[in-house]
Write a structure and sequence with these properties.
The chain is α/β, with parallel strands linked by helices. The chain contains 9 helices and 14 strands. It has a 6-stranded mixed β-sheet, sandwiched between helices.
Length: about 450
C-alpha cells in the first residue's frame, strides 16, 4: 500500500431543506389553516481518528466530499427528513489545517477523536409556524440554510516514541528490524527507505514503545536536496531521537563528526524544538575495520562536548542492549544522565574540582619546613636576647642612682594629693556634727 502523508481536499456540508407552504383541505372542513412542515437539517462533515489506518491514500484520488442535503417540508404538518453526517476516517495523528490561511484547526492525536469540519445547514420553517391571530393564512415559508464549505489540508504525523535519524545507508532499517518485528526493505544503496516505517519494540518488564524509521537526511535537505526534510514531521512527536552515525561511510571528505554536525544543522533549520530534544548518539557498523579506527577520534570529539557515544553494530547486534537501556531510561523516566548532556557535564566538572585543588594541598605540605625554620629563627632570636639581658642589667646597676632620683620626683605629687584628701573630707563633715548637736 502506498504511503501518503499529505493531501488537499474540499468538503461541503449539506444544505437544509426548505419549509413547505400548504393549507389543510379536507371535506366538511372549511379554512383549515396552514399546515406546511419544516425542512430537514443538512448533513455535517465529521472527521474521526481511526487507529486502524496508517495512510491518507484514500483522499489522494477522491478530493471532493459532500454531505447530503436535508429533505424539504411537506403538507399535513410533515417535516422533511434530516440528512446523515458524512464521516471521514483518518489515521490517528492527522493534522487538519485551513488551506487558505494555514491555521491549524485540530490535531486528531487520540483514537476515536472527532471534529466537525463543516456544519450542515438548518432546515427552514413551514408556513404553519408563521400563523398568528392577525395573519391566519401565511403564504410563505422559510428556506433552508446553506451548509459550510471549506478547503482543507490534511497532514499525517506518525505517533512514535523514538525516532531514528541519520544519513542514507546508515543502517536505520537494519536497526529497527533487529529491535522490533518491522521488516522494512534493506539494501546496500542509499535512499533504500522512501517512506517512514513503524516498529513496536518490546522492552524489559512488559514495557514497550513505538520506533519510527524515516528516510535519510543529507546536507541541503532543507533546500530540497535528496528527499528533503518533509519526513521530519513524523518524528516531531517523538520524545527521544537516536542519531545513527555511519562509521564506515565512504566518500570524498566524509567524516563521522561532519555527518553529526550536518544532521544537527538540518534539524535546527526545520525546527528548533525538534533539535532540542534528547539525542542518543550511536556509532554504527563496528563490524568493519575502518569503522573501529574512526571510533576513537569521533568519541573523543564528542566527549569534549559532553556527549556520550554508544558503539553498536546493527548487523551483529554488538552493543545494542546498552543503547536500548539508555533510550528506555530517557523515555520512561525522563533522566538524561546516560546521555552526558548539560546536567552530566556540570557534575563531571564538580567531581573534577577536588582533583585540581590537590596539588595546592601538597604545596602547603612542602611549605611546612619553612614554618619550622621560622620557629628556629624565633628561638635563636630569643636566645640572643637572653644573652644580651645580663649586659643590660649590669648597666642598670651602674646607673641606679639616677632612676631613684627620678622616682622620688615622680612620687612627690602623689604624696601631696594623699595629704590634701583628708582635709577636704574633714571640712565636709564639720557641718554634719554641728547639726547633730542641736538636735
Amino acid at each position: 500500500m502506498k504511503f501518503v502523508d499529505e493531501v488537499r481536499i474540499y468538503v461541503k456540508a449539506g444544505d437544509g431543506g426548505n419549509g413547505a407552504v400548504a393549507f389543510r383541505r379536507e371535506k366538511f372542513i372549511e379554512r383549515g389553516g396552514p399546515n406546511g412542515g419544516d425542512g430537514g437539517n443538512g448533513g455535517s462533515v465529521v472527521f474521526v481518528a481511526n487507529p486502524q489506518l496508517t495512510t491518507l491514500l484514500d483522499y489522494r484520488y477522491q478530493q471532493h466530499h459532500r454531505a447530503k442535503n436535508g429533505e424539504h417540508g411537506m403538507g399535513s404538518d410533515c417535516n422533511g427528513h434530516g440528512a446523515e453526517d458524512l464521516v471521514l476516517q483518518v489515521p490517528v495523528g492527522t493534522l487538519i489545517r485551513n488551506e487558505q490561511t494555514g491555521e491549524l484547526l485540530v490535531d486528531l492525536s487520540d483514537p476515536g477523536q472527532q471534529y466537525v469540519a463543516a456544519k450542515g445547514g438548518r432546515g427552514g420553517l413551514g408556513n404553519m409556524n408563521f400563523a398568528t391571530s392577525t395573519r391566519q393564512t401565511p403564504r410563505f415559508a422559510q428556506d433552508g440554510g446553506k451548509g459550510e464549505e471549506i478547503t482543507l489540508r490534511l497532514e499525517l504525523k506518525l505517533l512514535a516514541d523514538v525516532g531514528l535519524l541519520g544519513f542514507p545507508n546508515a543502517g536505520k532499517s537494519t536497526f529497527i528490524s533487529r529491535v522490533s518485528r518491522a521488516r522494512p526493505k534493506v539494501a546496500d544503496y542509499p535512499f533504500t527507505t522512501l517512506v517512514p516505517n513503524l516498529g513496536m519494540v518490546q522492552y524489559k518488564d512488559n514495557l514497550s514503545f513505538v520506533m519510527a524509521d524515516i528516510p535519510g537526511i543529507i546536507e541541503g535537505a532543507s533546500e530540497g536536496v535528496g528527499l528533503g526534510h518533509q519526513f521530519l514531521r513524523h518524528v516531531e512527536r517523538c520524545k527521544v531521537l537516536v542519531h545513527l552515525i555511519d562509521m564506515g561511510a565512504e566518500g570524498e571528505g566524509r567524516k563521522p563528526l561532519d555527518d553529526f554536525n550536518i544532521l544537527n544543522e538540518e534539524l535546527k533549520k526545520y525546527s528548533e524544538e525538534l533539535a532540542s530534544k534528547p539525542q542518543v548518539v550511536a556509532a554504527n557498523k563496528l563490524d568493519l575495520t575502518e569503522a573501529r579506527e574512526r571510533l576513537g577520534p569521533f568519541t573523543e570529539a564528542l566527549r569534549r562536548k559532553g556527549i556520550r557515544v554508544y558503539p553498536v553494530s546493527c548487523a551483529t547486534g554488538e552493543g545494542m542492549q546498552p543503547l536500548m537501556d539508555a533510550v528506555a531510561e530517557v523515555l520512561f523516566t525522563g533522566s538524561t544522565d546516560k546521555l552526558f548532556l548539560e546536567m552530566p557535564t556540570t557534575r563531571r566538572l564538580a567531581t573534577m574540582a577536588p582533583v585540581k585543588k590537590a596539588p595546592a594541598k601538597k604545596a602547603a605540605v612542602k611549605k611546612a619546613p619553612a614554618k619550622k625554620a621560622a620557629v628556629k629563627k624565633a628561638s635563636a632570636k630569643k636566645a640572643g636576647a637572653a644573652k644580651k639581658a645580663p649586659a643590660k642589667k649590669a648597666a642598670a646597676k651602674k646607673s641606679s642612682r639616677k632612676p631613684v632620683a627620678k622616682k622620688a620626683t615622680r612620687k612627690a605629687p602623689v604624696k601631696k594629693a594623699v595629704r590634701k584628701a583628708p582635709v577636704k573630707k574633714a571640712a565636709r563633715k564639720a557641718p554634719a556634727k554641728k547639726s547633730g548637736g542641736r538636735r
